[in-house]
Amino acid sequence: MFKTVICDLLNIQYPIIQGGMAWVATSELAAAVSNAGGLGIIGCGNAPVDVIEKEIFKIKKMTSKPFGVNVMLLSPYVDEIMELLYREKVPVITTGAGNPGKYISKFKEIGTKVLPVVPSVALAKRMEKVGADALIVEGTEAGGHIGELTTMALVPQVVDSVNIPVIAAGGIADGRGFVAALALGAKGVQIGTRFVCTKECIAHENYKNMILKAGDRDAVVTGRVTGHPVRSIKNKLTKKFIKLEKEGTDKETIEKLGIGTLRNAVLNGDVENGSVMAGQISGLIKEIKTCKEVIEDIINEARKVKESL
Ligand code: TUI
Protein backbone atom coordinates (compact mmCIF):
# COMPACT_ATOMS: atom_id res chain seq x y z
CA MET A 1 0.00 0.00 0.00
CA PHE A 2 1.11 3.56 -0.85
CA LYS A 3 3.67 2.38 -3.36
CA THR A 4 3.64 5.03 -6.10
CA VAL A 5 5.60 6.01 -9.22
CA ILE A 6 7.90 7.98 -6.90
CA CYS A 7 9.01 4.72 -5.22
CA ASP A 8 9.94 3.31 -8.64
CA LEU A 9 11.58 6.52 -9.84
CA LEU A 10 13.76 6.90 -6.75
CA ASN A 11 14.08 3.21 -5.86
CA ILE A 12 12.65 3.66 -2.34
CA GLN A 13 10.10 1.78 -0.23
CA TYR A 14 7.82 4.66 0.86
CA PRO A 15 7.11 7.86 -1.13
CA ILE A 16 8.45 10.02 1.69
CA ILE A 17 11.30 12.43 1.06
CA GLN A 18 13.08 14.34 3.81
CA GLY A 19 13.44 18.09 3.31
CA GLY A 20 16.95 19.33 2.48
CA MET A 21 17.22 21.69 5.44
CA ALA A 22 20.44 23.71 5.61
CA TRP A 23 22.68 22.78 8.61
CA VAL A 24 19.97 20.38 9.90
CA ALA A 25 19.91 17.82 7.09
CA THR A 26 23.33 16.24 7.58
CA SER A 27 24.46 12.77 6.53
CA GLU A 28 23.30 11.41 9.92
CA LEU A 29 19.67 12.45 9.36
CA ALA A 30 19.67 11.57 5.67
CA ALA A 31 21.12 8.09 6.26
CA ALA A 32 18.52 7.38 8.96
CA VAL A 33 15.66 8.37 6.64
CA SER A 34 17.04 6.34 3.73
CA ASN A 35 17.63 3.32 5.97
CA ALA A 36 14.00 3.58 7.14
CA GLY A 37 12.71 3.32 3.56
CA GLY A 38 12.30 7.00 2.65
CA LEU A 39 14.69 9.23 0.73
CA GLY A 40 17.21 11.01 2.96
CA ILE A 41 18.56 14.32 1.69
CA ILE A 42 21.75 16.19 2.61
CA GLY A 43 21.08 19.94 2.64
CA CYS A 44 23.82 22.19 1.22
CA GLY A 45 22.50 25.59 2.25
CA ASN A 46 25.44 27.97 1.83
CA ALA A 47 28.09 25.40 2.80
CA PRO A 48 31.28 25.21 0.72
CA VAL A 49 31.98 22.22 -1.49
CA ASP A 50 34.49 20.46 0.82
CA VAL A 51 31.85 20.25 3.59
CA ILE A 52 29.35 18.63 1.22
CA GLU A 53 31.99 16.29 -0.15
CA LYS A 54 32.63 14.99 3.38
CA GLU A 55 28.90 14.53 3.99
CA ILE A 56 28.56 12.48 0.79
CA PHE A 57 31.57 10.41 1.80
CA LYS A 58 30.00 9.81 5.24
CA ILE A 59 26.52 8.88 3.98
CA LYS A 60 27.95 6.34 1.56
CA LYS A 61 29.36 4.55 4.62
CA MET A 62 26.11 4.80 6.60
CA THR A 63 23.64 3.50 4.01
CA SER A 64 23.57 1.44 0.84
CA LYS A 65 20.14 2.88 0.00
CA PRO A 66 19.55 5.80 -2.40
CA PHE A 67 19.95 9.31 -1.01
CA GLY A 68 19.80 12.84 -2.37
CA VAL A 69 21.42 16.24 -2.01
CA ASN A 70 19.49 19.51 -1.88
CA VAL A 71 21.17 22.41 -3.64
CA MET A 72 20.14 25.87 -2.46
CA LEU A 73 20.46 27.87 -5.66
CA LEU A 74 21.24 31.19 -3.94
CA SER A 75 24.46 29.66 -2.58
CA PRO A 76 27.70 31.23 -3.84
CA TYR A 77 29.06 27.70 -4.40
CA VAL A 78 26.28 26.34 -6.65
CA ASP A 79 28.45 25.59 -9.71
CA GLU A 80 31.17 23.80 -7.72
CA ILE A 81 28.56 21.82 -5.80
CA MET A 82 26.84 20.75 -9.02
CA GLU A 83 30.24 19.57 -10.34
CA LEU A 84 30.80 17.57 -7.15
CA LEU A 85 27.36 15.93 -7.39
CA TYR A 86 28.09 15.01 -11.01
CA ARG A 87 31.48 13.48 -10.11
CA GLU A 88 29.98 11.56 -7.19
CA LYS A 89 27.01 10.38 -9.29
CA VAL A 90 24.62 11.31 -6.49
CA PRO A 91 21.35 9.42 -7.18
CA VAL A 92 18.93 12.32 -6.57
CA ILE A 93 19.19 16.12 -6.52
CA THR A 94 16.51 18.41 -5.16
CA THR A 95 16.85 22.16 -5.55
CA GLY A 96 15.46 25.18 -3.72
CA ALA A 97 15.22 28.96 -4.00
CA GLY A 98 15.63 29.23 -7.76
CA ASN A 99 15.56 27.75 -11.24
CA PRO A 100 17.92 24.77 -11.80
CA GLY A 101 17.07 24.52 -15.54
CA LYS A 102 20.60 24.96 -16.91
CA TYR A 103 21.99 22.03 -14.89
CA ILE A 104 19.40 19.37 -15.70
CA SER A 105 20.54 18.00 -19.08
CA LYS A 106 24.04 17.13 -17.78
CA PHE A 107 22.61 15.05 -14.93
CA LYS A 108 20.39 13.17 -17.38
CA GLU A 109 23.60 11.71 -18.94
CA ILE A 110 24.42 9.88 -15.70
CA GLY A 111 20.90 8.98 -14.58
CA THR A 112 20.75 11.38 -11.63
CA LYS A 113 17.13 12.29 -10.94
CA VAL A 114 16.53 16.04 -10.58
CA LEU A 115 13.55 17.22 -8.53
CA PRO A 116 13.20 21.02 -8.35
CA VAL A 117 11.15 22.60 -5.58
CA VAL A 118 8.58 24.90 -7.19
CA PRO A 119 6.25 27.46 -5.61
CA SER A 120 4.07 28.12 -8.71
CA VAL A 121 2.41 26.58 -11.76
CA ALA A 122 4.57 28.71 -14.10
CA LEU A 123 7.86 27.38 -12.70
CA ALA A 124 6.44 23.83 -12.62
CA LYS A 125 5.70 23.99 -16.35
CA ARG A 126 9.14 25.43 -17.11
CA MET A 127 10.83 22.67 -15.11
CA GLU A 128 8.86 19.97 -16.90
CA LYS A 129 9.97 21.43 -20.25
CA VAL A 130 13.68 21.35 -19.32
CA GLY A 131 13.50 17.72 -18.20
CA ALA A 132 12.83 17.58 -14.45
CA ASP A 133 12.02 13.99 -13.40
CA ALA A 134 9.43 15.04 -10.81
CA LEU A 135 8.50 18.21 -8.93
CA ILE A 136 8.41 19.06 -5.27
CA VAL A 137 5.48 21.44 -4.96
CA GLU A 138 5.93 23.41 -1.76
CA GLY A 139 3.23 25.44 -0.08
CA THR A 140 3.77 28.47 2.11
CA GLU A 141 3.12 26.38 5.24
CA ALA A 142 6.70 25.12 4.95
CA GLY A 143 9.63 26.31 7.02
CA GLY A 144 12.59 28.29 5.69
CA HIS A 145 12.43 30.11 2.37
CA ILE A 146 8.84 30.02 1.12
CA GLY A 147 6.50 30.93 -1.71
CA GLU A 148 3.03 32.55 -1.49
CA LEU A 149 0.52 29.77 -2.19
CA THR A 150 -0.77 27.13 0.19
CA THR A 151 -0.14 23.42 -0.34
CA MET A 152 -3.90 22.81 -0.59
CA ALA A 153 -4.34 25.33 -3.44
CA LEU A 154 -1.02 24.84 -5.25
CA VAL A 155 -0.65 21.04 -5.44
CA PRO A 156 -3.81 20.24 -7.46
CA GLN A 157 -3.17 23.17 -9.80
CA VAL A 158 0.32 21.89 -10.57
CA VAL A 159 -0.94 18.29 -10.86
CA ASP A 160 -3.39 19.47 -13.55
CA SER A 161 -0.70 21.45 -15.39
CA VAL A 162 2.12 18.91 -15.83
CA ASN A 163 2.62 15.28 -16.83
CA ILE A 164 5.44 14.43 -14.41
CA PRO A 165 4.91 13.20 -10.82
CA VAL A 166 4.31 15.74 -8.09
CA ILE A 167 5.54 15.50 -4.50
CA ALA A 168 3.65 17.70 -2.03
CA ALA A 169 5.51 19.69 0.62
CA GLY A 170 4.59 22.21 3.30
CA GLY A 171 2.41 21.47 6.31
CA ILE A 172 2.76 17.67 6.25
CA ALA A 173 3.90 15.75 9.32
CA ASP A 174 1.61 12.74 9.83
CA GLY A 175 -0.54 10.12 8.12
CA ARG A 176 -3.44 12.52 7.67
CA GLY A 177 -1.30 15.00 5.76
CA PHE A 178 0.20 12.16 3.73
CA VAL A 179 -3.24 10.86 2.62
CA ALA A 180 -4.45 14.41 1.97
CA ALA A 181 -1.44 15.01 -0.31
CA LEU A 182 -2.24 11.84 -2.28
CA ALA A 183 -5.88 12.95 -2.50
CA LEU A 184 -4.70 16.21 -4.09
CA GLY A 185 -2.98 14.16 -6.79
CA ALA A 186 0.55 14.09 -5.37
CA LYS A 187 2.49 10.82 -5.64
CA GLY A 188 4.58 11.44 -2.55
CA VAL A 189 5.41 13.91 0.19
CA GLN A 190 8.40 15.89 1.33
CA ILE A 191 8.61 16.35 5.09
CA GLY A 192 10.99 18.73 6.84
CA THR A 193 10.01 19.94 10.31
CA ARG A 194 8.85 16.50 11.56
CA PHE A 195 12.34 15.12 10.80
CA VAL A 196 14.03 17.90 12.81
CA CYS A 197 12.45 16.42 15.95
CA THR A 198 14.14 13.04 15.60
CA LYS A 199 16.87 11.31 17.57
CA GLU A 200 19.18 11.18 14.56
CA CYS A 201 18.89 14.89 13.73
CA ILE A 202 22.01 16.76 14.91
CA ALA A 203 20.18 20.06 15.56
CA HIS A 204 20.76 21.46 19.07
CA GLU A 205 18.18 20.28 21.62
CA ASN A 206 17.08 23.91 22.13
CA TYR A 207 16.11 24.00 18.44
CA LYS A 208 14.10 20.79 18.72
CA ASN A 209 12.45 21.99 21.96
CA MET A 210 11.43 25.26 20.30
CA ILE A 211 9.45 23.21 17.72
CA LEU A 212 8.00 20.86 20.38
CA LYS A 213 6.81 23.90 22.39
CA ALA A 214 5.41 25.80 19.38
CA GLY A 215 1.69 26.39 18.92
CA ASP A 216 -0.29 26.79 15.71
CA ARG A 217 0.58 30.50 15.20
CA ASP A 218 4.22 30.48 16.24
CA ALA A 219 5.86 29.90 12.84
CA VAL A 220 5.94 33.42 11.42
CA VAL A 221 7.20 35.00 8.19
CA THR A 222 9.91 37.64 8.03
CA GLY A 223 11.98 39.13 5.22
CA ARG A 224 9.21 39.76 2.68
CA VAL A 225 10.92 43.06 1.79
CA THR A 226 14.09 41.21 0.77
CA GLY A 227 12.24 39.10 -1.79
CA HIS A 228 13.27 35.99 0.14
CA PRO A 229 10.63 35.51 2.82
CA VAL A 230 11.52 33.00 5.54
CA ARG A 231 9.28 31.15 7.99
CA SER A 232 10.73 30.53 11.45
CA ILE A 233 9.57 30.20 15.04
CA LYS A 234 8.75 33.51 16.73
CA ASN A 235 11.61 34.76 18.94
CA LYS A 236 13.74 37.81 19.69
CA LEU A 237 15.17 37.73 16.14
CA THR A 238 11.79 37.57 14.33
CA LYS A 239 10.50 40.44 16.52
CA LYS A 240 13.56 42.52 15.57
CA PHE A 241 12.99 41.74 11.86
CA ILE A 242 9.30 42.67 12.06
CA LYS A 243 10.07 45.94 13.85
CA LEU A 244 12.70 46.93 11.26
CA GLU A 245 10.40 45.97 8.38
CA LYS A 246 7.60 48.12 9.84
CA GLU A 247 10.04 51.04 10.11
CA GLY A 248 10.82 50.68 6.40
CA THR A 249 14.44 49.59 6.90
CA ASP A 250 16.23 48.90 3.61
CA LYS A 251 16.54 45.44 2.09
CA GLU A 252 20.34 45.19 2.43
CA THR A 253 20.31 45.91 6.18
CA ILE A 254 17.60 43.29 6.73
CA GLU A 255 19.39 40.72 4.58
CA LYS A 256 22.65 41.30 6.52
CA LEU A 257 20.87 40.76 9.82
CA GLY A 258 19.96 37.22 8.73
CA ILE A 259 23.48 36.04 7.90
CA GLY A 260 24.70 33.22 10.15
CA THR A 261 21.50 33.14 12.20
CA LEU A 262 20.32 29.67 11.10
CA ARG A 263 23.70 28.16 11.96
CA ASN A 264 23.64 29.94 15.32
CA ALA A 265 20.29 28.35 16.22
CA VAL A 266 20.95 24.86 14.82
CA LEU A 267 24.51 24.35 16.09
CA ASN A 268 24.88 26.70 19.09
CA GLY A 269 21.29 26.39 20.30
CA ASP A 270 20.87 30.17 20.43
CA VAL A 271 17.14 30.05 19.76
CA GLU A 272 16.51 33.70 20.71
CA ASN A 273 19.05 35.47 18.48
CA GLY A 274 19.20 32.66 15.93
CA SER A 275 16.76 31.69 13.17
CA VAL A 276 14.67 28.64 14.11
CA MET A 277 13.34 27.82 10.64
CA ALA A 278 10.31 25.52 10.88
CA GLY A 279 6.91 25.11 9.26
CA GLN A 280 3.34 25.84 10.37
CA ILE A 281 2.93 22.17 11.29
CA SER A 282 5.32 22.65 14.24
CA GLY A 283 2.32 22.86 16.57
CA LEU A 284 1.45 19.25 15.77
CA ILE A 285 4.84 17.84 16.76
CA LYS A 286 4.97 16.79 20.38
CA GLU A 287 7.79 14.27 20.76
CA ILE A 288 11.22 13.23 19.58
CA LYS A 289 11.16 9.92 17.74
CA THR A 290 13.54 7.96 15.53
CA CYS A 291 13.24 8.49 11.78
CA LYS A 292 12.05 4.89 11.49
CA GLU A 293 9.25 5.56 13.99
CA VAL A 294 8.25 8.76 12.19
CA ILE A 295 7.96 6.95 8.86
CA GLU A 296 6.22 3.87 10.27
CA ASP A 297 3.75 6.03 12.21
CA ILE A 298 2.90 8.00 9.06
CA ILE A 299 2.28 4.86 7.02
CA ASN A 300 0.26 3.12 9.77
CA GLU A 301 -1.87 6.19 10.38
CA ALA A 302 -2.33 6.69 6.64
CA ARG A 303 -3.66 3.13 6.30
CA LYS A 304 -6.25 3.77 9.03
CA VAL A 305 -7.21 7.15 7.57
CA LYS A 306 -7.65 5.66 4.10
CA GLU A 307 -9.90 2.89 5.46
CA SER A 308 -11.98 5.35 7.46
CA LEU A 309 -12.75 7.60 4.50
O1 TUI B 1 14.62 26.53 -0.51
C1 TUI B 1 13.73 26.28 0.30
N1 TUI B 1 13.86 26.52 1.60
C2 TUI B 1 14.94 27.10 2.19
S1 TUI B 1 16.36 27.59 1.44
C3 TUI B 1 16.94 28.20 2.86
S2 TUI B 1 18.46 29.00 3.00
C4 TUI B 1 17.97 30.62 2.75
N2 TUI B 1 18.06 31.42 3.79
C5 TUI B 1 17.70 32.70 3.66
C6 TUI B 1 17.23 33.22 2.47
C7 TUI B 1 17.05 32.40 1.43
C8 TUI B 1 17.43 31.05 1.56
C9 TUI B 1 16.06 27.99 3.85
N3 TUI B 1 14.96 27.37 3.47
N4 TUI B 1 12.57 25.75 -0.11
C10 TUI B 1 12.30 25.50 -1.47
C11 TUI B 1 11.72 26.69 -2.12
N5 TUI B 1 12.09 27.09 -3.28
N6 TUI B 1 10.78 27.49 -1.62
C12 TUI B 1 10.54 28.44 -2.56
C13 TUI B 1 11.38 28.17 -3.62
C14 TUI B 1 11.53 28.84 -4.87
C15 TUI B 1 11.35 30.23 -5.01
C16 TUI B 1 11.53 30.82 -6.25
C17 TUI B 1 11.89 28.09 -5.98
C18 TUI B 1 12.07 28.68 -7.20
C19 TUI B 1 11.88 30.03 -7.33
O2 TUI B 1 12.06 30.50 -8.58
C20 TUI B 1 12.40 31.81 -8.83
C21 TUI B 1 12.77 31.86 -10.27
O3 TUI B 1 13.97 31.93 -10.55
O4 TUI B 1 11.86 31.74 -11.10
UniProtKB/TrEMBL annotation:
Keyword Transmembrane included in the entry's annotation: no
InterPro entries attached to this UniProt entry: Aldolase_TIM (IPR013785), Enoyl_ACP_red-II_put (IPR017569), NMO (IPR004136)
A Pfam family the protein falls into: NMO
Signal peptide residues on this chain, from the entry's feature table: none
Flavoprotein among keywords: yes
UniProt keyword terms in alphabetical order: Dioxygenase, Flavoprotein, FMN, Oxidoreductase
Domain of life the protein comes from: Bacteria
Molecular functions (GO terms): dioxygenase activity; nitronate monooxygenase activity
Protein purpose: Nitronate monooxygenase that uses molecular oxygen to catalyze the oxidative denitrification of alkyl nitronates. Acts on propionate 3-nitronate (P3N), the presumed physiological substrate. Probably functions in the detoxification of P3N, a metabolic poison produced by plants and fungi as a defense mechanism.
Protein name listed in UniProt: Probable nitronate monooxygenase
